[in-house]
TrEMBL record:
<dbReference type="GO" id="GO:0008934">
    <property type="term" value="F:inositol monophosphate 1-phosphatase activity"/>
</dbReference>
<keyword id="KW-0479">Metal-binding</keyword>
<dbReference type="GO" id="GO:0046872">
    <property type="term" value="F:metal ion binding"/>
</dbReference>
<feature type="binding site">
    <location>
        <position position="97"/>
    </location>
    <ligand>
        <name>Mg(2+)</name>
    </ligand>
</feature>
<dbReference type="GO" id="GO:0007165">
    <property type="term" value="P:signal transduction"/>
</dbReference>
<feature type="binding site">
    <location>
        <position position="209"/>
    </location>
    <ligand>
        <name>Mg(2+)</name>
    </ligand>
</feature>
<dbReference type="Pfam" id="PF00459">
    <property type="entry name" value="Inositol_P"/>
</dbReference>
<keyword id="KW-0460">Magnesium</keyword>
<dbReference type="GO" id="GO:0006020">
    <property type="term" value="P:inositol metabolic process"/>
</dbReference>
<feature type="binding site">
    <location>
        <position position="76"/>
    </location>
    <ligand>
        <name>Mg(2+)</name>
    </ligand>
</feature>
<feature type="binding site">
    <location>
        <position position="96"/>
    </location>
    <ligand>
        <name>Mg(2+)</name>
    </ligand>
</feature>
<feature type="binding site">
    <location>
        <position position="94"/>
    </location>
    <ligand>
        <name>Mg(2+)</name>
    </ligand>
</feature>
<dbReference type="InterPro" id="IPR000760">
    <property type="entry name" value="Inositol_monophosphatase-like"/>
</dbReference>
<protein>
    <recommendedName>
        <fullName>Inositol monophosphatase</fullName>
    </recommendedName>
</protein>
């Protein structure tokens, strides 16, 4: 039996929505009762954390421990959990992905949660409270976007403005979108067939920024890989690869060719 069965899945959604309500209370872009109390602090790695991150982390850690007794949690806000290479089953949590966007009042922030079971990423969820979007995917059960089944595009070649790149220099192309997105938004658009491909050069990305996205892409019919075409593998907070490539599956080789061009010193086209 899967660690996250349909009963647990419903309870997880309730838990993440409760956490989202807390974020909305603190969010400077809304009218929440706690937004005047939002405080930001700088962490040792120079990234920022807010009172909202910490409160949501506490709620989710407690709720997950009650739903899955004894299951280890790797969380961005719990440094002691960042090395789980000896565990075959655990969950990976980012209580607030996009803290800078959140603190600036932008709506593109999310809660990310993934479950690793016997070494396999079998479940992922992404909740964007300010946009009202909830995506979840369980191995073999498909990807749901606000309760509706999602499928990637069927384009065999990239459509105009259908490829999003981040931290990656490329020559101007008809295929590239000029839309400003973060990685979670881009993945949402892959799953809903709005985009055909995504290439992200990892900079400060950690495991909790990526893990939940993998089941969402796979269960909507897409493909996700590192720069070598291999499935991303996680055993600590550091991803261990340089690029994340996401596609509808049909154009994945097209994206991989651009990485090869980049490594050869050519301008990807």
């Amino acid at each position: 039996m899967s660690l996250v069965d349909k009963n647990k899945e419903a309870k997880l959604e309730e838990l993440l929505r409760r956490a989202g309500d807390i974020l909305l209370d603190y969010w400077p872009g809304g009218s929440g009762a706690l937004k005047s109390r939002l405080e930001s602090f700088q962490k040792s790695d120079a990234s920022i954390v807010t009172t909202a991150d910490l409160e949501v982390n506490a709620l989710l850690s407690k709720g997950l421990s009650e739903l899955f007794p004894g299951l280890e949690i790797m969380s961005e806000e719990m440094p002691e959990t960042h090395e789980l290479r000896n565990r075959s089953s655990f969950c990976i949590l980012d209580p607030l992905d996009g803290t800078k966007h959140f603190a600036a009042g932008a709506s593109n922030f999310s809660i990310l949660l993934a479950f690793v079971e016997d070494g396999n990423l079998n479940y992922g969820a992404m909740y964007m409270p300010a946009q009202g979007d909830y995506l979840c995917a369980a191995k073999g059960r498909g990807c749901l976007f606000n309760g509706h089944n999602m499928r990637v595009s069927e384009a065999e070649t990239p459509r105009p403005s259908s490829i999003f790149i981040e931290h990656f220099d490329a020559a101007p192309s008809l295929f590239l979108t000029q839309e400003k997105l973060d990685s979670s938004e881009a993945i949402k658009k892959i799953c809903s067939a709005e985009l055909d491909g995504v290439v992200i050069r990892l900079r400060k990305h950690k495991t909790w920024d990526i893990a939940a996205l993998i089941p969402l892409v796979e269960e909507s019919g897409g493909r996700i890989s590192d720069e070598h075409g291999a499935m991303p593998y996680f055993e600590s907070s550091e991803p261990g690869f340089a690029y994340l490539l996401v596609s509808n599956g049909q154009i994945h080789d097209f994206l991989l060719e651009r990485i090869v061009q980049k490594k050869n010193g050519e301008a990807p086209k």
